[in-house]
Design brief:
With about 280 residues, this protein is of the alpha/beta class. Helices cover about 50% and strands about 15% of the residues. Strands 1-2-3-4-5-6-7-8 form an 8-stranded parallel β-barrel, surrounded by 10 helices. β4, α6 and β5 form a beta-alpha-beta unit. α2 packs across α11, α7 packs parallel to α8 and α10 runs antiparallel to α11.
């Protein structure tokens, strides 16, 4: 299955009132699990590699090329996306490697500087056929750089999209990064107002903190791309811990990483079903 543009997935999902799952890759087992879950569900999926993960691996290329290889071998449409990149150089590397989309995050900058930096990145990416997501209205819980409680203003969002020509917009509507409990309270009325204000798909970051009912309602209100990372990492870690608790002699990492991969694959398949059939 060839790689496809994230824009193709999200625009198609938006017009069909369904959502698409975007799950973060930390190591190759995550990429395999996410794609395996998508194949079980028979639905498209987005593999995301964050700037923090690239740093963990000593650079984007090792984990990026592994994710691209897993995506290209998939039996369902898969795209590979650079998540939360603050570095323009990293964006350019992702484009060179063959990523089909990037999320450029200049939200910590003053509004005018965010617009200018994002517009420049968007022009570069579009010249290479790469789709761009940006962020407006800081989303809580990201390394202390974003203030919880911030909400995206619809009028500002419309102006930002028009000024930057981005293909999707990550908005602040009540979720927070790295939540360990699924009890975030989203502002569904604001999601609908944002949907009506901008002409591009909306992206929900921090979705690990949102329960199934909230995710379905968010899609129904107008959200399209849903980013989930911490929730899957919890399942992965729990599966490893459970295995080692009962197999104290285990030495081969494959023995405990395999069950962790299976646990994540099963949850990805379930979550994709939730996002694809909101309200059913």
């Amino acid at each position: 299955m060839p790689l496809i543009s994230t824009g193709v997935i999200t625009h198609g999902a938006r017009t069909g009132a369904t959502g698409v799952g975007a799950f973060n890759v930390v190591q190759i087992e995550h990429a395999q699990a996410i794609v395996g879950g998508a194949e079980t569900a028979g639905l498209p999926v987005i593999l995301q590699v964050s700037e923090n993960t690239a740093r963990y691996h000593g650079g984007l290329e090792p984990i990026g090329l592994a994710s691209l290889a897993v995506a290209r071998a998939a039996g369902v449409p898969v795209s590979v996306h650079l998540d939360h990149a603050e570095s323009a150089d990293l964006v350019r590397e992702a484009v060179r490697l063959g990523f089909t989309s990037v999320m450029f995050d200049a939200s910590a900058l003053p509004y005018a500087d965010n617009v200018a930096a994002t517009r420049e990145i968007t022009a570069y990416c579009h010249s290479h056929g790469v789709w761009v997501e940006a962020e407006l209205g800081e989303i809580g819980g990201k390394d202390g750089a974003h203030a919880p409680g911030v909400r995206t203003d619809p009028d500002e969002a419309r102006a930002f999209v028009e000024a930057t020509a981005v293909d999707a917009l990550a908005v602040a509507v009540g979720s927070s990064h790295a939540m360990l409990t699924r009890d975030a309270v989203l502002d569904f009325a604001l999601i609908s107002r944002l949907r009506d204000a901008v002409g591009v798909p909306l992206v929900l970051h921090g979705s690990s903190g949102v329960g199934d009912t909230g995710l379905a309602a968010a899609i129904g209100a107008g959200m399209t791309k849903v980013n989930i990372s911490t929730h899957l990492n919890k399942l992965f870690t729990r599966a490893v811990r459970d295995y080692l608790d009962t197999h104290a002699e285990a030495a081969d990492p494959r023995a405990y990483l395999g069950p962790a991969r299976d646990a994540v694959a099963a949850e990805v398949a379930r979550l994709l079903g939730v996002l694809a059939r909101p309200g059913r």
